[in-house]
Structures are given as structure tokens and as C-alpha cells.
């Protein structure tokens, strides 16, 4: 049994001008100890998917439907009390904005200690001891001094390390990292990724990594889920996905990655891009969600939504024209 | 920090000096002559002149101001024209009821208004929120004396739960003291509660949108801890500021409230002194109120550091 099974997840928001289908029928699973990346442009529903897993979507106006089975228990059926026991304990989360994700008026030690006191019933002293330990683990120098400091006294990279310390304090089985390196500068990004990889081996947690940075995906993920307009459009192990992307959207994403020497094209030497924008999710889309921007679009695409199909072993994509391995031979 | 406290205390000196000048000048410029009031209807102009000379009112403005300030610095606020008692003595006799009323109102208002604002923000847009906001509008718009008489009518006259008016000294027991002060405190606190509740709600709404609140949820913190620890501590600075500014409301309201409930406090003393043109008393009381206001705001400035570690002096 997989650690996390998400089945037909639908997260919709009621808005004054219609229902926003931010996530519309997404299914995937995460095995214990595995790192799965969810990629896509801004507005594709990646963050909403991750927030839905911990039920951090405000309801109303949000509404989460489907099933999210964590170790066999459907999280959507738990009471608020039971859900709180899981948050920060068995599943924890790191956010994109290290500058604003820590409470400015509480000490770092208190914020790390809070999870420990909540979930492991540690005393104040024990929690502070453990907080010092966690700070050491995430590579913050002078942890004894730092536990008593406030977030504004730390740099962005240090704050993200503190967030990681908070997230890992209770040895979670699943860590959801929502663009953990986006707000950091490149050298710090590398350090944070290295730290996450290192800690993952030590703690043995599975990671769901939300990102739009394909470089990060290549570096840390084992399996990749590509999301577009609230749906999953492709899923494969990281190697096949990068070498043989099936969905035109994935191909477009990979094509728009800058590569040394070869990625500029045209007279002006522009970086490749996917024309257009993610469609509004307030209207029901007939046909393929990517049809409006797809270079290979046909009438079939505009009328009939392609189902997710296994195009190669362990490699699914939702495209009428993605060639199925072995189909030609047969 | 210590240097800052010293600097802030020193900075109150010019403020108080300005207030003193203002208070003194205001009465100097005000129409009406205390000598004429004391002399009565039958007095001749010579009588009035004699009384004026005996009160020192014929001396030049600056000389009078100088001697008044010098007296205050020596703990002497002058002698009441009307009762011939030292102003300090009169204030000392009247300060307990007013202080009791203000402190009780402050405690009552903060303990009611802050949770009210927090809950309204948490339940934004619901019936509870609207009820709180409706109450706040009511608190702002109904004058203290109307609320006062209404409360006295319902709880004292009709239901007979509490005394209609008067004051019992704290030395005669806590309960009698409290019984006499509950209605005045509620009447006086209305506007104050409305003000604090509104600002608490507005600030909390903003704080609850912050990323660190989401982090707290993701950690598994309970609703109470999120509202009262993670959010309220961040919202504290504007709330505390308003509590301080609102002290002015209490001072103004105390004068009216004491009249409605016949409490022998500084408010009544002020009103009586104004009616009698008892200048030394008016000056003394107004100066004292100003001093309290300046002091409270100093304390609040210092309190900021307790709530927000980013504020350093």
C-alpha cells in the first residue's frame, strides 16, 4: 500500500463569478520514502493540491472532494481534532515564503518547540533542548544563541532552515514542500536542496515537492507529476519524463528551459515559450485543457478530452496524439 | 532600553510645560470674573476690586503664571477660591472614586472588547461578527448619559439588583464598592469597548491573512492558540495604542458619568469648579488629567517592546 493515495481530488472555490475548479480530478500516489515532484506553471493547481492534502484550504469558500488516503485513512473523513494530530506530526509542510512564514513575535526556539509540545507532549525545557538539536541538524551555527532569537534576526536561507527544522521536528512520514527554494537566491537554493536530500535520507520521510523549477526536479525527484489547469496531464519517472516527454505541455515546459548554447532560436535568439496563458478555471472545459495552446491541436482535441493513458510502462499522459509504445509495432 | 526610558520621561517635561501654559491661558482668556461671583449680586465695584486684589488676580499674566507653576513644582496647586481648601487636598479627597471608576472601566472594557474583536474576526461575515459590529456602532453613537440613565432605570429601579447612585469607598469592602461602580463602569465603557473591539477585529483580520498563521495551522496548532497566541500577539501594537488613546475618552466620560450616578469624584469636582469659576481647582484638575494621559501613553510606548521584538529603543 502506498503511503499517500490521492484519488480524484477536486478542490473548488466558490467565487462571486462562478466556481473556480482549481484542482479538478487529480489522482496520484506517493510511496514511503519516495520523492515525487509536482510541476506546472503558476495557477495550475499545484499549491492548492498540496494544501488540500493537509486540509489547509479555508472551507468555505473552498471545497475539497475525492479521497486522500494517508496510511489507509481518508484524511477528508477525519474530524478537525484528528486532522490537527496529523498536521506537523505525520505530515508536515514547508512553504514558499521563508521571510513571512515564521511568526515575527515568537522566538525561533518556541516555534520549533511548539510542534514538539503539541505532538510529543514535551515540557518547555525538553522542547527547547530538542529545538537546539534540530537547529544543529539543519546546519545553523550557534544554535544555543539562535533558539532565543526572533525571525527578523535571521537571513532568508536561515529562516528556510528553521522552517525545515519545524517540519522535521516530529519525524514526519511525509513532507510537503511547496516551492521551498523559489524565494531564495541560487547559492542558497542549492544548499537548501542539499539539506533536504540529506535529511530525507536520515529521517526517511517521503517528499512531495511542488515546484516550477525543472532544474530542481531533475536534481531531487524520483517521479514527476505534470499538472496543467487543475489536472494531471503526465506522470513518469524522472528519467523518461525528461528524455521522452509524451504530452505537448511537458515538451513545451522542457523546451522553455534555458540550456547552455542551444536553447535560443529565431532571429532575435529568444528562449522558447508556450504561447498563451493557463485558461480560466471558472468555465467547464470541453475537450483537452491544453487545446488552446497546443501546437499539435486538432478538432478531436477541442471536442473530446483525452483520458490518462499508459503510453509506456509507468509513464502516463493525457494526449490523443502521444504515441503509445509498441503501438506501431502491433 | 534604560536610556530610552530616561529620554522618554525627560521628553514629557516640555509636553507638560506646554499643557500647563495652555491650561492657565485658557482660563485667563475665558469670560467671567471669579471676584464678581464671590462678591455676589449686591457688591459695589470697590468690593469686587478688593476681592480681586486679595486673590492676586490684578497681577500681570506672566507673574500669575510664574507663581502658579512655582507653586505646583513645590506641591502646591493653590487654594480654592470657594472653599479656601488647598487644591491638592480637594483632589486627594476626590481621587479614589474617579480612579476606581476608570480602572474598573479599563479592565472591563479590555476583557470584553478584545475577545469580542478576536471572535468577530475569526467568524468574519457571520451573525456573530455582525452582532459585534452592530454593538460597536451602538456603543459609538449612544451618549454616555443616555446609557447611564437607561442602565440605572433597568438594573437599579426596575430590577433592583444594584444601587441607583452613589459611591462606597473600597475600604468599606470590595463588594459594596463593586456594586456601586458596575453600572457607571458599563455606561462609561460603551464607547471604549466599541473602539477597542473594532480595532481588534480590523487588525486581527489582517493578521489572520498572514503566512505565519498558515504555518501555525500546518503545525497542528489549535484554533485557540492560533487566535490568541499567534495572531493576537501580532495584532497587539495597534490594539494597545488605541487602549491608550481611549483613556482620553474615559477622562471626558468620567465627568458625565459621575454626574449621572452622583459619584463624588474628580469629574464632579471639575464641573462644580467650572460653575463657580474656581480657577485654581479647574487648573489643578485639568493639569492632573493631562499628566495621567501623558503618563499612560508613555507606559504604552514602553509596552510595545513586550509585544513586538522588532521594536527596539
Automatic annotation (TrEMBL), chain A:
Which Pfam family, giving just one, matches this sequence?
ABC_tran
Please give the Gene3D superfamilies that the UniProt record associates with this protein. Answer: P-loop containing nucleotide triphosphate hydrolases (3.40.50.300)
Can you provide one Gene Ontology molecular function annotated for this UniProt record?
ATP binding
Q: Tell me, which GO biological process terms does this entry list?
A: peptide transport; transmembrane transport
Q: Which CDD domains match?
A: ABC_NikE_OppD_transporters
> From which organism does this entry originate?
Roseicella aquatilis
Q: What is this protein called?
A: ABC transporter ATP-binding protein
ABC transporter domain: residues covered: 4-254
Tell me where it resides: Cell inner membrane
Gene Ontology cellular component annotations, sorted alphabetically: plasma membrane
Q: Which key words tag this protein in UniProt?
A: ATP-binding, Cell membrane, Membrane, Nucleotide-binding, Transport
Matching InterPro entries, A to Z?
AAA+_ATPase, ABC_Ni/Peptide_Import, ABC_transporter-like_ATP-bd, ABC_transporter-like_CS, Oligopep_ABC_C, P-loop_NTPase
Going by the entry's taxonomy, the superkingdom of the source organism is recorded as Bacteria
Its membrane topology: Peripheral membrane protein
UniProtKB/TrEMBL annotation, chain B:
Main subcellular localization, coarse class? membrane
Which UniProt keywords are present, listed alphabetically? Cell membrane, Membrane, Transmembrane, Transmembrane helix, Transport
Q: Is Transport one of the keywords?
A: yes
Name the GO cellular-component terms.
Answer: plasma membrane
Annotated membrane topology is:
Multi-pass membrane protein
What is an example of a GO molecular function annotated in this UniProt entry? Answer: dipeptide transmembrane transporter activity
- The answer to whether UniProt assigns keyword Cell membrane to this entry is yes
- Domain ABC transmembrane type-1, chain residue ranges per copy: 95-304
In terms of InterPro entries, this protein maps to: BPD_transp_1_N, MetI-like, MetI-like_sf
Q: Where in the cell is it found?
A: Cell membrane
Transmembrane region(s)? 9-30, 99-122, 134-157, 177-197, 235-261, 281-307
Among PANTHER family, the record links this protein to:
DIPEPTIDE TRANSPORT SYSTEM PERMEASE PROTEIN DPPB-RELATED (PTHR43163)
Entry similarity comment: Belongs to the binding-protein-dependent transport system permease family.
Name recorded for this polypeptide: ABC transporter permease
Name the source organism. Answer: Roseicella aquatilis
